[in-house]
Each structure stands twice: as structure tokens, then as C-alpha cells.
Amino acid sequence: MLIRSSVGLAVAALVASFTWGSANAAPADEWEKSPVYAKWQALGGAAFAGEKVGDEVVVPGGRTRWAKFSKYDIVITWGDTAGAHWMSGAISRKWLSNDYVFKSVPTNDQVPVNRGGQAGAAVDFGPDSSIYYSDAYGAFLVTGVEMDVYRSNGGVTGKFGWPVSDLLQLGSGWEQQFSEAVSIYREPERWGFWISGALRDKFRAELAAGRPNWPAASQMPEPDGGWSIRMTRGAIYWSASTGARLVETSTADYFNSEGGPRRFGYPTSDSAAHHNGFITDFVAQTTFYRGPDDSIAYWISGQVRDTYRAQGGPGGSLGWPRSSQHPAPGTDGHYVLFGDNRDKVILWGHRTGGHVVQGSILTKLRNGGDVAVYGLPQFGQLPAGPTAEFQQFENASVFLRADNHVPTLGWDFRAFWWDLGGLSSPLGLPQGDVHPLGNDKFLVQKFDNGLMWCDYEVGECGYSISDGNSQAALKQAARENSKFRVRLQNR
Questions:
Q1: What is the tens place of the pLDDT at every residue in 405-447?
Q2: Suppose 420 and one of 25, 81, 199, 425 were both cysteines; which one would form an S-S bond, judging by CB atoms 3.0 to 4.6 Å apart?
Q3: DSSP of 101-117, one letter per residue?
């Protein structure tokens, strides 16, 4: 490393309250008594630095002095606590070119610093300020908060590389740039945080678009070689396959709390405004939805999401989701809740597809043991004649009648009813639920035009169009040839 290799100095961080005009030339007869002269002699005198150029300068009070020499723009400084040290080239030229005398003088001689095959040098100015010079980029000062962040990440030989700028004003804050596509950003009254590569590009693009959104932490590694950084509003996530995406605050919070990229992968879109809320798409067919009145976001994926979109998404009749996607207990399906009262749900299964269940039918489903008992819905809500509707689940059907009764028809009773013709059967629609008659082995259900019964002691079921509803009357009807009867073991 040649002596002329040097480091540069950012003006603002080391400026003193003294101007050049307030510094004094030392009397000529005092030169040989100066600690600067002693240092020059110790270094080899003219052979090392050349002859002194001009007078030695003494800052008022005599606590700091310096002199320039003819070789390599070498400057030797002395401070009453720092001692005497030398610097050269870009370091001294930048130091001398300013309009101020600095409070700080070097606390060590200029030393060579290298990053692989890249040659450079460094000089310290106190415990938290250093000038770094590289042949490739020049000389720059790193100080204060930026120095703490820089050193904690390995300095020149770490992930940041060489400084390539002084501290730059950026809006209401500051930026310092480094050779490995890294910057440290700092808002007033806040710590400095580093950000690099495509994450930094995304931050800059937002800033250029008039949407300042400062880092609130340094960037962090994520699974599969990805990165993320927390911002004052949301977070930026990056992966090689998806690029850098900005996710709004509530979505980022919930995304991370639920497992983040390790569980969901990376976002494939920025958070997009939609019906006064936000939608963010992720890999693996997953979307996070955050409604305008919600403090958290909810996720839906795969064919459950397809069903939701087919219903119009947030702008449709379901509105914004009120839960994330969950396994439906007792089945191999999944569900998502909707409605302010959670009175709508999408239920999806591999065998059944996705369907909406809502209102009184959903209430009856929940009161009857939910899908663990009824099974998953096989269709949406369908008409059952001119005045009623019904919804069929794997094991039972729920009817919504004009008289506000909501009966369930299921299992053996439903199978027999469909065999009789279902909606066109002579029994008509169920009026109430199945109930025991006489004993718990003999069950009966009333329909518009009659009754259906199952006797589990003998394993038979049948129906009657008559009004008789006693156990004896029903068994008598079962013996009549005109009545339907089936052995349960054949089912």
C-alpha cells in the first residue's frame, strides 16, 4: 500500500466551531519545539514526508496543531489527548479543503486496509469515527450511529464493503451508501438500519413515488435465501423467484405471526388497495385479506379461495373474511367465516367442492353438531318447491321453510325420502326433526303429508300418509302392502 493511498472525510460529522480564519500560524522559532516537528522527525523527516509547506497551524488554545508537507499531501496533526499522527492523499486533501478546523484529529496513523484484492487505507478519528479509502471508490467518513452499524456487520471485510458516500441528507433523514449495494438509513431520533439490493431498490422506489416509508429494523435473512425488512409501515419481502414486495402493516404482522415465509412462501404482489382494504397474493395460491375495519389480516388459499372469488370476493355478498382458513373439525375439509356476526361460511372438501352456508341453515348446522355430524355441504342453497329452500350435506339436509321451521332430514330418513321421490315424494317436505315415539328405538319424523318411521329393534323403516301418529298406527301402516317398507340391513 503506497503512502498516497488515502481516505476521505465527510465534512459535517467532524466540524468544529472554529473557522480557518481563527487558526494561527506558529512562530517560526517554535517549529523545532512542536510535537508535529517531533513526529515528522520520527517518521524520517524529509525522506518520508518532504519539507513543510507553509507555516504550522495552531488552533486557538493550543490543543490542536498541524502542518502540511510536500510529499503525497501528507499532513501531520497533533492533539493534546490524541498525540501526533499522519495522514496523506485523499484524506488530507479533503480535510484541508473544508472551510473549518475540525474538533477531532486522527487518533492513529494511516494504516492499510484491504478487501480481498481491493487495496485501501483507514484513519480513526476517535472511537466512533473513521475514514476509509479505497482505490476503487475514494475516501469517505463513517461516524456515529452509522459506524456502529457498519462495524457490527464486519466493516470493510463484511457484507457492506467499502463506503462509497459520505452521510447524505435524504428527506428528513440520512443515508450512507456502501459498495456491496448496501445503505444505512436513519430517521431523526432513531437508530440506523441497513438495507441492500432489491429491498433497497424497493424502498427507493417508494420514496421516489412520494411514499416515504423508513426502515424500522435492519434486513433479516428468511428461508430459501430470501430477505425481509420491517418498515415503519409494513414490511418488504424478497426472494429470487418473486422479487421485492411491499406488504402493508396488518398483513405483515399476521403473516409473520402465522409462520411467515417458512409457512406461506413469499408475496407475489404488493399489498393492493381494494374496497377500502388490502389484498396481498402469496405463492402456493394463498391470499391475505385485510378489511377496512380490521386490525389483522386473514388468509385463504387454494380452492377455498377460488370459491370466495367466485362469490365476488370482498365486493360480493360475503364481504371481507372474518377468519383465516381452518380445518373443519371431524372432516377432511376446510372453512372460512364471513359476516359481522360470523353467520356465513365457506365450507370446502375434496369430495364436495366449496359451498356457502349461511343464516338459519348455518345455525341449524352448528346446533346439530356441525359438519362432524352432518358432513360437508354438497351444494349451495337450492329451492325446495315454491316456498322453501334446502341445502344438502353429506349425511343430512337442512330445510328452510316459509313457516320459519328449519328441520333436518338425514341418514336413513333422508335415504328413504329420496327413494320415495324426494321433493316430489308423496310425503312432501319435512316439518320437524326426527324424534323418538314410545321408546328411543322407534324414531319418527313428520312431513307435510304424513310420517316416516324407523324401528331399530326390528331394523325396518316405513311411512304413512295417514294422520295417525301413534306407534301402533304406524306399525299397522307398515303392514299394509301400499306402504313403503325397507329392511335397514339392506341399506
A1: 999 999 999 999 999 999 999 999 999 999 999 899 999 999 9
A2: 425
A3: EES---SS--EEEEETT
